[in-house]
Amino acid sequence: MEIEDADKREQVNASNIIIATGSEPALLPAFNIDRKNVLTSDQALNLDEIPESILIVGAGGIGIEFGCFFSTFGSKVTIVEALPQVLPTLRDAKLATDIEKIFSKKGIQIRVKTRVDKVEVKGDKKVLTTLNGDEVLESERVLVSIGRKLNSDDIGD
Ligand SMILES: Cc1cc2nc3c(=O)[nH]c(=O)nc-3n(C[C@H](O)[C@H](O)[C@H](O)COP(=O)(O)OP(=O)(O)OC[C@H]3O[C@@H](n4cnc5c(N)ncnc54)[C@H](O)[C@@H]3O)c2cc1C
């Protein structure tokens, strides 16, 4: 394996090599992530103010976690998930149903079996999200949490 820093490049040999370079949010061009109005979790952790409303695309671990805390801080939260339940990888479907009930009591709107087609920024603090080809929801911010991809593009062949 070849490693390099600012001053040098060297060859390192080992029988096994572990690549542990982490991951970054998965992005889709149709979601127009400008990192100001349409955010990934990286920007959502560094906001200067709590948005009045936020639409979260994806009800995996990150979408659910951020949905809970934005709601607790006073945002109107809508979570949109393409699959039939929140936390789709959870084996215990009852737990997912319980989370949906608890979130509903907190005033969080959860839309399952709903596909987000596109996200458009229409000015500062105004984002339009198109669902299932026709319905459009407006929110101050959108958080895209549709998964993460490995940071390994430039490593290996
Ligand atoms: C919003 C959010 C909430 C999370 N909450 C939880 C949680 O509650 N519990 C939990 O267990 N996990 C949680 N996770 C997941 C957890 O953060 C990750 O699983 C964990 O950080 C992965 O560790 P890692 O060592 O693989 O990668 P990282 O911690 O990302 O470390 C990778 C390192 O590799 C370096 N690097 C990248 N490319 C190169 C290169 N070419 N050469 C040399 N170095 C390189 C990077 O600079 C970085 O320091 C969360 C993640 C997110 C995004």
Describe this structure in words.
This protein is α/β, with parallel strands linked by helices and 157 residues long. It has one domain (26-149): FAD/NAD(P)-binding domain (3-Layer(bba) Sandwich), CATH 3.50.50. 18% of the residues lie in helices and 30% in strands. The protein contains 3 helices and 12 strands. The strands form 4 sheets. It has a 5-stranded parallel sheet. A 3-stranded antiparallel sheet has the order 8-9-10, with no helix packed on it. A two-stranded antiparallel ribbon has the order 1-2. The model has no long low-confidence stretch (mean pLDDT 95). The structure holds flavin-adenine dinucleotide. Flavin-adenine dinucleotide (FAD) binds at residues 20-22, 41, 62, 151, 155.
**Percent in strands:** 25-35%
**Content-based structural category:** alpha/beta
**Low-pLDDT ranges:** none
| CATH architecture assignment | 3-Layer(bba) Sandwich
Annotated CATH homologous superfamily: FAD/NAD(P)-binding domain
Into how many domains do the coordinates divide?
1
Bound molecules: flavin-adenine dinucleotide
Distance between the first and last residues' Cα = 11 Å
Outline the biggest β-sheet. Answer: 5 strands, parallel
CATH topology: FAD/NAD(P)-binding domain
Query: Which percent range fits the helix content?
Result: 10-25%
Number of strands: 12
Just give the CATH class. Alpha Beta
Strand order of the largest sheet: 4-11-5-6-7
Q: Total number of helical segments?
A: 3
